[in-house]
Amino acid sequence: MDFTKKTVIVTGSARGIGRIVAERFASLGANLVISDVDQEQAETVAGEIGGTAIGLKANVTSSEDVENLFEKTKKEFGQVDIVVNNAGITRDTLLIRMHEKDWDMVLDINLKGAFLVTKSAAKLMMKQRYGRIVNISSVVGLTGNAGQANYAASKAGLIGLTKSTAKELGARNITVNAVAPGFIATDMTENLPEEAKEMFLSKLLIKRAGTPEDIASAVTFLSSDEASYITGQVLTVDGGLTIN
Ligand code: NAI
Question: pTM of the entire structure?
Answer without folding.
Answer: 0.97
